[in-house]
Amino acid sequence: MKLHLEIWRQAGPYSEGHFESVDVPDAVPQMSILELLDHVNSNLIEQGKEPFAFASDCREGICGTCGLLVNGRPHGREQNQPACQQRLLNVKDGETLKIEPFRSAAYPVIKDMVVDRSALDRVMQQGGYVTVNAGTAPDADTLHMNHQSAELALDHAACIGCGACVAACPNGAAHLFTGAKLVHLSLMPLGKEERGKRARKMVDELETNFGHCSLYGECADVCPAGIPLTAVAAVNKERARAALRAKDD
């Protein structure tokens, strides 16, 4: 299968970037987007040229490291799939693929298609912790949690932090990411003491680095973990709860 690729090339965060054309005459439909880039890089290395930089790790759809725009869509054309799981099965022979980094003011480019997504980490650093009594671990049955709450918490804990939701949003909002974390932590039996402070600090950090929610739902459409759009509501819900109970925290 022949493909024409337009791949983003940028030497560094302060350099001007551009698209570089690459023709691939021997692509295989079973290849993922990342394997396609591996193939391109192998050929460049053999020719003594610099390979394209991009981020990846587990390539099993669970680490959240990979992140690309493929023809303007985060990760690729398949809905709710990370870049490492996006195959070329639905790509036509002779088609052009434009591959570039996640685009957001919160994601400065480091090199080529590698971006700095530490703004998401800073949101978690503001509230992603719980208070526990040090010492002997308590018996598992001393922390009561019903099955429905546990399943709902796990559904939102599935967020892998890839940041595709931000790249998909016209306003560069991270409400789906932050909402998923707030829902997950609010449902757990541990960490109740920090719930109000967590909400205030995480939402403040969210609004410092990211835009306002567009309410269109592009984020949920590309989320590899399938986080429901309802998670967005947790941002305002948890902030309002924290404001009403500020004296108790």
3D architecture notes:
By secondary structure, the protein is of the alpha+beta class. A five-stranded mixed sheet has the order 2-1-5-3-4. It has helices spanning 33-46, 118-125, 147-157, 164-168, 175-187, 195-209, 218-222, 233-244, and strands at 3-9, 18-24, 69-70, 73-74, 96-100, 109-111, 114-115. Helix 3 packs antiparallel against helix 5 and helix 5 runs antiparallel to helix 6 (195-209). It contains eight helices and seven strands. Its cofactor is [4Fe-4S] cluster; [2Fe-2S] cluster; [3Fe-4S] cluster. GO terms for molecular function: 2 iron, 2 sulfur cluster binding; 3 iron, 4 sulfur cluster binding; 4 iron, 4 sulfur cluster binding; electron transfer activity; metal ion binding; succinate dehydrogenase (quinone) activity. This is succinate dehydrogenase. Residues 150-179 form the 4Fe-4S ferredoxin-type domain.
State the main characteristics.
11% strand, two-stranded antiparallel sheet, Fumarate Reductase Iron-sulfur Protein, Chain B, domain 2, 8 helices, single chain, Ubiquitin-like (UB roll), five-stranded mixed β-sheet, alpha+beta, 249 residues, elongated
